[in-house]
Design a protein that fits this description.
The protein is of the alpha+beta class. The protein folds into 7 domains: about 160 residues, no CATH class; about 110 residues, PAS domain (Beta-Lactamase), CATH 3.30.450; about 110 residues, Beta-Lactamase, CATH 3.30.450; about 100 residues, Beta-Lactamase (2-Layer Sandwich); about 110 residues, Beta-Lactamase (2-Layer Sandwich), CATH 3.30.450; about 160 residues, Heat Shock Protein 90 (2-Layer Sandwich), CATH 3.30.565.10; about 120 residues, Rossmann fold. It is about 50% helix and about 20% strand. InterPro entries: CheY-like_superfamily (IPR011006), HATPase_C_sf (IPR036890), HATPase_dom (IPR003594), His_kinase_dom (IPR005467), HisK_dim/P_dom (IPR003661), HisK_dim/P_sf (IPR036097), PAS (IPR000014), PAS-like_dom_sf (IPR035965).
Length: about 1100
């Protein structure tokens, strides 16, 4: 858009616009006709000499006509008149040139030209053209010879008449058409005037724009529309004017509507007048389209709503002020109709116990009044006020509200108001709950103060300063001084003789006169009986109702001295350290505190607290950690290292607290110190023991789960193999194989049970180590032969390495427990063969030198394998009960984890020790060092004490087998009869007792009794006790499946001779029977 906009065309009247349009159309048609005429002249009359003049004339006229279409107003009318006049002249010239005269074909067009000019340029211009045309017609008729008429054609008079008639008709028609157009224009002007008057009534201004939205016409109020000058905004787009202001979103919407050629209504804008006053306007507009449908601009109206806008803003401000006042006023306000809450301010929402306004709206206000008088009065007042006119109010009244179980005392009134929904009441409340509570508290405080004064242990007196006479004395004064209140009031202290010394009284009076108060002054009072009392006195002056008084508070401190002595005794005899610090310096320490830190009495007073901490940094860190808590008056406690005077340290439990929690910074801190070194060591030891016990418990739990598996595995095999052996389809060879496997499973099961029993005996301290002579060399070779088959089955080499002779003695007999030695070495060999996948296992034995074994004949045994080895961190756990080096070993190889533990305990019982040397991937060497001294010469020739005593034969021996289980009975009888014994049977203790007594009576007593322990009717224990009570000394050998230490002790206590565990080892049973049958003891013998 150019900086200087193009001036818009002036506004035209409707008839002028219509005439101008017709004029331009006529001019355009005339111009085109002239151009066509120019061409026809050149084509048809090219032979005539004057043809080119005619062509030039037509061309010039065409140019003038076409150019004149751009003219407007008077210029356009003049141009139309000239063109039409030129056409008349050209018609006349053409008739003369052609020699046609009045017979020229264009002569009748003269009337049409006159009519058109009358319409476009007015009747005067038409009359002028009509005269010109008439003159031209007469001139042609008089001066141009007329071509002779052909027969049947009209003559000149008739042609002249026709031309005159055409001119007259054209003039008449033009005048009539011009008058009709003027009447239509007048009517249009009238309509437009009425429209503008209506606009002036409905709107404050009228405006028009062109197609580029530039203002071209405006009318303010009832003035006529006029074109605006550029300085008034004419020719410019409104929103580009500095006087115009509009919100951005509103302007965007307005421009979008105008670009879419849509009408718009009441668009809010602002206009600043020449006085710099801003007016609020609402503009409306509709698009205008020309007769051909072309958009020509917008027109519309403006309404000045400044006053409405100001009133609206004033109303909004008033509403805002009301809402702010309503919401912010601390007085509870509730708007309600018939008790139903319509609105409430926050103070009322809070008063009635609601979380927000939404929870209160719609509730019944009357339900909040306490049932009874308050609710009844509130209901009556509400009904009364509803019948009154708006603005009336009720007097203030007191009510009690019930809010969530709490009583709230309020003063309330109501005002009758009108709302959009109808009449309502505005209730105004003043919460007096706090005021009433305060007044009640004041009354209670006064009563309490009076009570405190009356019951205070201190002496309290009130003295009139002007007269020096007592106005009030409390009960403590009466009790201590001896004067009653009736006797003291109205008299002076001098009259009563209260002061024991005049000097005290003078100092008291002087301090009171100078400072207006006395604080903790030591004085001596005298009682009515003459006894003196040390007191601490405080006093102050004050004024009540323009009269000065002195209040004196005196405390008897004779008790304080006694308390001081008690406190010193407590500090001196306390078994804990007690100290007081102020500003980090010791101000008091008791003797125990000084002894804890190694200081002499009184030596720590004045020293810094850093003296008792290991270092300055530790002391500062302590201050940072506990200082804030102490400053808040909180108690602190901590356990830390403390430093003595000699720089040694001990573990101290420290507790501290501010002496005055209200003034912790200045009041000092009291400290209590305990030496907890011994207690912490004991707790640490207890914690370690607890952890070890918990670890042992967990290990035992794992052991029990694993042992259950280990027991069930061979037992399951035994049951399955026994069922297979019973199958009739099995041949004898397969049954033999089944029976051998059953025996192996049973032996495995017996081995597990033996380990458990041995551990039980060891833990109970009931395992006994035998001391007999045996052939060590033979025992080692027997072990090699025993495990050679297992080694071959696993593809391993088992070798025994012995020196030519043990140092100090030949390979021969030694003294010790061969059974337990065999148990230790068997465990070493069994583990080595179990965990070694390839390679070899080597067993060695050598006697240690005398310097190494302490003179007890120690022999070192080693079992070395080429297995996977054991990590160092796991070796320490190997010899613990229920433990294996890796839990995966249990899953891969089985076992209970008791073997090595039993080996360690057996070695300890024998006076030796066990151990292991191993590295992962390099195999392991388990060793045992056991005291096995060389046997004496007499023992060299004696038979092996451990070998079964088979010399004594069981042939012909009478044995009573007592067993309630038929299978066990069958096995035992078969074994005994195979050994040549004569066997009798009994199913329980009763039968056994009867059988022994019957055999004894018949003179064929039994050589031995094999007695089951647990049996129905009568147990083996009870049967044995009755045999012993009867004086029968037959050997009784207990058979039990439990075999715990307690079982053995109970069997021996019952009088049994020996003790064997199930499952029965046949060779051990045979040896035990042979031994007891050979002895034939008459009383129970001790077991081996």
């Amino acid at each position: 858009m150019a900086d200087t906009p193009e001036a818009p065309p002036a506004a035209q009247a409707p008839e002028a616009e219509a005439v101008g349009l017709m004029s331009r159309v006529f001019l355009a048609v005339s111009g085109v006709a002239c151009l066509v005429g120019t061409g026809l002249v050149y084509l048809l009359l090219s032979g005539h000499a004057q043809a080119h003049y005619a062509a030039l004339a037509f061309g010039a006229l065409a140019v003038v006509a076409l150019f004149s279409t751009r003219l407007r107003g008077t210029a356009l009318r003049v141009a139309v008149t000239l063109v039409f006049s030129s056409l008349v002249l050209l018609i006349g010239v053409n008739s003369v040139v052609q020699g046609w005269g009045l017979r020229t074909p264009s002569m009748p067009l003269l009337g049409l030209l006159v009519c058109m000019l009358c319409v476009t340029a007015g009747w005067r211009a038409g009359l002028m053209l009509c005269g010109l045309a008439l003159a031209m017609v007469l001139a042609v008729a008089l001066n141009v010879p007329t071509v002779p008429a052909s027969p049947g054609l009209p003559g000149v008079p008739m042609l002249l008449g026709v031309c005159l008639l055409a001119l007259g008709t054209g003039m008449a028609c033009g005048v009539l058409a011009s008058q009709a157009l003027q009447r239509l224009s007048a009517q249009a002007r009238d309509r437009e005037d009425r429209f503008r008057r209506l606009l002036s009534l409905a709107a404050d201004a009228y405006w028009e724009t062109d197609e580029r939205y530039r203002v071209i016409t405006a009318a303010i109020g009832r003035e006529a529309p006029r074109a605006l000058a550029p300085e008034e905004g004419g020719g410019r787009i409104p929103w580009e004017l500095p006087q115009f202001r509009c919100e951005d979103d509103v302007l965007d919407a307005l421009q979008a509507d105008m670009d879419a050629r849509l009408p718009f209504r009441d668009v809010p804008v602002f206009w600043t007048d020449e006085h710099r006053r801003e007016h609020a306007l609402l503009i409306s507009g509709e698009p205008r389209f020309g007769s051909s449908g072309v958009f020509t601009g917008y027109w519309g109206v403006v309404r000045n709503v400044t006053a409405v806008h100001a009133a609206h803003h004033a109303l909004e401000a008033t509403e805002t002020r009301y809402q702010e006042l309503f919401s912010r006023i601390p007085t509870p306000l509730v708007l309600h109709r018939n008790g139903r809450v319509l609105d409430a301010n926050p103070a009322a929402v809070s008063l009635f116990g609601h979380a927000d306004l939404a929870g209160m709206l719609g509730t019944d206000l009357l339900e909040r009044y306490q049932d009874g008088d308050s609710r009844a009065r509130a209901t009556e007042r509400m009904q009364t006020l509803q019948r009154q006119a708006p603005g009336n109010a009720l007097p203030v009244a007191n009510f009690t509200l019930d809010v969530e179980g709490r009583q709230i005392f309020v003063r309330g009134t109501s005002v009758r108001v009108d709302t959009e929904g109808g009449p309502a009441l505005l209730a105004i409340f003043i919460d007096d709950t706090e005021r009433i509570a305060t007044e009640e508290a004041v009354r209670r405080s006064e009563a309490l103060l009076s009570h405190l004064v009356a019951t205070s242990p201190d002496l309290i007196t009130l003295t009139d300063l002007a007269t020096g006479r007592y106005a009030m004395v409390n009960r403590s004064f009466e009790q201590h001084i001896g004067w009653s209140a009736a006797e003291a009031v109205g008299r002076t202290s001098l009259e009563l003789g209260v002061w024991a010394g005049e000097a005290d009284r003078q100092r008291f009076v002087q301090a009171l006169q100078q400072d207006g108060q006395v604080v903790d002054a030591p004085v001596v009072f005298r009682t009515r009986a003459g006894r003196t009392m040390p007191m601490i006195v405080s006093a102050a002056r004050f004024t009540i109702e323009r009269r000065e008084y002195i209040v004196i508070n005196a405390r008897d401190v004779s008790e304080r001295e006694r308390q001081r002595l008690e406190r010193e005794a407590i500090l001196t005899n306390a078994s804990i350290g007690i100290a007081v610090t102020r500003n980090r310096v010791f101000t008091l320490t008791n003797r125990h505190f000084e002894q804890l830190y190694g200081w002499e009495p009184g030596e720590m007073i004045g020293r810094s607290g850093a003296e008792v901490w290991p270092g300055h940094e530790a002391y500062e860190q302590l201050g940072r950690e506990i200082g804030p808590a102490l400053a808040r008056g909180e108690a602190v406690q901590l356990q830390c290292a403390a430093r003595r005077k000699d720089n040694s340290t001990f573990l101290a439990f420290v507790r501290g607290r501010a002496i005055d929690p209200q003034n912790p910074a200045d009041g000092g801190t009291v400290w209590i110190i305990e030496d907890v070194t011994a207690r912490e060591e004991a707790q640490s030891a207890l914690a370690r023991a607890r952890d070890e016990a918990e670890a042992a418990s967990r290990a035992k739990s794992a052991f029990l789960a694993n042992t259950s598996h280990e027991l069930r595995t061979p037992l399951n095999g035994m049951i399955g193999l026994a069922r297979l052996a019973r199958d009739e389809r099995s041949d004898s060879a397969r049954r033999e194989q089944y029976l051998e496997q059953i025996v192996e499973s049973a032996q495995s099961l017996a081995g597990i049970i033996s380990d458990i029993l041995d551990l039980s005996k060891i833990e109970a301290g009931k395992l006994h180590i035998e001391a007999g002579s045996f052939d060590l060399d033979g025992q080692l070779h027997t072990l090699q032969r025993t495990y050679a088959t297992l080694a071959d089955a696993r593809g391993l080499a088992l070798r025994l390495q012995l020196p030519p002779a043990l140092p100090g003695a030949p390979l021969g007999r030694v003294t010790g427990d061969a059974l337990r030695l065999r148990q230790v070495l068997s465990n070493f060999l069994g583990n080595a063969l179990k965990f070694t996948a390839s390679g070899q296992v080597v067993m060695r034995a050598r006697r240690l030198a005398a310097d190494d074994d302490g003179g007890v004949g120690m022999v070192r045994f080693e079992v070395e394998d080429t297995g996977p080895g054991i990590a160092p961190e796991l070796q320490a756990r190997l010899f613990e009960p229920f433990t294996q080096a890796d839990q995966s070993i249990t899953r891969r190889f089985g076992g209970t984890g008791l073997g090595l533990s039993i080996c360690r305990e057996l070695a300890t019982l024998m006076g030796g020790r066990v151990g292991v040397h191993s590295l992962p991937g390099s195999g392991s060497t388990f060793w045992a060092e056991l005291p096995l001294p060389v046997a004496a010469a007499a023992e060299m020739a004696a038979p092996n004490a451990e070998e079964p005593e088979l010399a004594a034969s069981l042939e012909g021996r009478r044995v009573l087998m007592v067993e309630d289980n038929a299978v066990n009975m069958m096995i035992a009888v078969a074994l005994l009869e195979a050994w040549g014994a004569e066997v009798a049977q009994a199913g329980d203790g009763h039968e056994a007792l009867a059988a022994v007594q019957q055999a004894q009576a018949a003179g064929r007593g039994f050589d031995a009794v094999l007695m089951d322990v647990q049996m129905p009717r009568m147990s083996g224990y009870e049967a044995t006790r009755r045999l012993r009570d009867a004086g029968l000394a037959v050997p009784v050998i207990a058979l039990t499946a439990a075999a715990l230490v307690t079982e053995r002790d109970e069997a021996l206590a019952a009088g049994m001779s020996d003790f064997l565990t199930k499952p029965i080892d046949a060779e051990r049973l045979r040896a035990t029977l042979a031994r007891w049958c050979g002895q034939r003891a008459t009383a129970p013998a001790a077991p081996d």
